[in-house]
């Protein structure tokens, strides 16, 4: 009797359950005493029966649980997991799409503002460029930017301001070229 058998483990588990759950205090005390005696007997043989019984009980619980599960329960569980995965994916895709749309809207706004800056630079009512020949033969270039345009340009990003300045520079170069 140096080896634990399934029968020994089952008996140990039943007595352990009695020690924990019996409504009668005398039964619980007797069961605890029996468990203590068995623990000592098996410990002398180098076996921790309490640990072995816990492992055995866990194995018994999982095998009875797996046997008692109906296929529809397993299917429902799989479907629930699958639906949760899809919900997570749709949430991620939604966030990615929202982020991409936000980026595209920002870029469109930037482009629109840059185009508007170019329009402000090309129309004389906003930015007037005058090239005149002086009596001495030299040429003067006068650039007049309306106060409304200056106020609007202060609100633009650096790239949009660059678009405005480049357009004004092109106009100055073109006007100067035609006067030469």
Short description:
With 180 residues, this protein is mostly helical.
How do the helices and strands line up, and which of them pair or pack?
Layout: H1 6-21, H2 25-44, H3 49-68, H4 71-122, E1 127-133, E2 139-145, H5 147-154, H6 158-179
Antiparallel strand pairs: 1-2
- How much strand content do the residues show? 5-15%
Q: What is the C-alpha radius of gyration, as a whole number of Å?
A: 44 Å
Percent helix: over 70%
Biggest sheet strand order reads 1-2
Structure description:
This protein is mainly alpha-helical. The protein folds into 2 domains: 6-68, no CATH class; 106-179, no CATH class. The protein is 77% helix and 8% strand. It has 6 helices and 2 strands, in the order H-H-H-H-E-E-H-H. The chain has helices at residues 6-21, 25-44, 49-68, 71-122, 147-154, 158-179; strands at 127-133, 139-145. A two-stranded antiparallel sheet has the order 1-2. Strand 1 (127-133) and strand 2 (139-145) form a beta hairpin. Helix 1 (6-21) packs antiparallel against helix 2. The radius of gyration is 44 Å and the shape is rod-shaped.
Keywords:
single chain, 180 residues, mainly alpha, 2 domains, two-stranded antiparallel sheet, 77% helix, 8% strand
């Amino acid at each position: 009797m140096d080896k634990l058998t399934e029968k020994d483990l089952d008996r140990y588990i039943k007595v352990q359950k009695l020690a924990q759950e019996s409504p009668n205090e005398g039964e619980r005390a007797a069961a605890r005493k029996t468990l203590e005696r068995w623990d000592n007997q098996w410990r002398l043989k180098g076996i921790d029966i309490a640990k072995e019984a816990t492992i055995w009980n866990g194995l018994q619980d999982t095998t009875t649980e797996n046997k008692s599960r109906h296929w529809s329960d397993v299917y429902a569980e799989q479907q629930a997991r699958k639906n949760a995965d899809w919900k997570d994916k749709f949430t991620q895709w939604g966030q990615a799409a929202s982020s991409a749309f936000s980026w595209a809207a920002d870029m469109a706004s930037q482009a629109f503002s840059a185009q508007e800056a170019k329009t402000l630079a090309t129309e004389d009512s906003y930015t007037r460029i005058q090239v005149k020949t002086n009596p001495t033969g030299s040429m003067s270039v006068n650039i007049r930017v309306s106060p409304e345009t200056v106020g609007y340009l202060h609100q633009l990003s650096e790239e949009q301001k660059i678009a405005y300045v480049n357009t004004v520079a092109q106009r100055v170069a073109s006007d100067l070229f035609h006067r030469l």
